[in-house]
Amino acid sequence: MWRTLIVEDEQHARASLRKLMQKAAIPFEIVGEAGDGNEALGLIRELKPDVVISDIVMPVMDGVKLLKAAREEGYECRFVMLTCMSEFEYARQSLEYGASGYLLKLSMDVNGLRQAMEKVSHELEQRERLRKVDKWFPDKRQAEPTDHPEMNRIISYIEEHYAEEITLKGLAELIRMDASYVSDLFKKKTGSTLTSYIQNCRIQAAKMLLTETGRTVSDIGRQVGFENDNYFIKIFKRWCEITPSEYRKRYND
C-alpha cells in the first residue's frame, strides 16, 4: 500500500475523497490529513508519504507552493492536484514543478480517481525499481565521474534513461555539441565508448532483475532497453560470458 496524505481545507471535500478512494479499491492508504499547505509540509516531514493529494487554493500556503517547498527540501513524494476549472493555470504550474497530474474537483468520480492514481502507482513502482538498480552500479560515486561537466551530464542522463532509446544524436543535442566530437570526447574522458557505457548500464539493471524478480528473460530484456530477445541474450553473453537464464540459475544456486 502506498502511503497517502490528503491536503484539503474543506472537511466535507476530504470526507468525499476518502469515500471515493475506498470505492476505487486502489493500493493507497491514507496516513494523514491536513487543512493547509503549511500543516501538510510538517506532515510530509513527519510521515514521509509516497503520494500527496492536494487542493491548489488553500489558506496559509497553497498547493503549488507546498509542492515547490517539498521539492526544495528533497522529498520525492508524488503529487496529484485538486483543482477547479477556474484554477487551471495553477494546475499547469504544478505540472511544471513535477506533479503527476490533477483532478477536477467538481467532476471527480471513481473512474477518474482510479485512472489518475494508477498512473501514480506506476510512477512509484518505477521509482522503487530504480532504487534497487542503484546498488548494481558500483561506479556511481559522490564525486563527479569526469572533469568535464557536459560529459557528466551525459553520464547522468544515461544512468537515468538507460531503458529508453538513446542515440548519439540525441545526446549531442542534449549538451549542444557536435555528435562526432561528443563521441570522441566521451571515450577520452571515460575510457569507454558511448555504446559500451549504455550496454553496461542495461546489463547491470538486467542482472538485478534476473536475481530479484521472477520476470521472464524476454520481459527483462525489454524493460532494460533491448529491442528483442536475441539481441539481449547476445549482448548479455558478451558482457557476462553466460546467458541470462544461466546467470539466474547460477545466482540462485
TrEMBL record:
Statement: the UniProt record of this protein carries the keyword Disulfide bond: no
InterPro entries (UniProt xref): CheY-like_superfamily (IPR011006), Homeodomain-like_sf (IPR009057), HTH_AraC (IPR018060), HTH_AraC-typ_CS (IPR018062), Sig_transdc_resp-reg_receiver (IPR001789), Tscrpt_reg_AraC-type_HTH (IPR020449)
A single MF term (Gene Ontology): sequence-specific DNA binding
Gene Ontology BP terms: phosphorelay signal transduction system
Keyword line: DNA-binding, Phosphoprotein, Transcription, Transcription regulation
Pfam families, alphabetized: HTH_18, Response_reg
Residue ranges annotated for the Response regulatory domain, each copy included: 3-120
Domain HTH araC/xylS-type: 152-250
Residues annotated with 4-aspartylphosphate modification: D55
Name of the protein in question: Helix-turn-helix protein
Organism: Paenibacillus prosopidis
Lineage: Bacteria, Bacillati, Bacillota, Bacilli, Bacillales
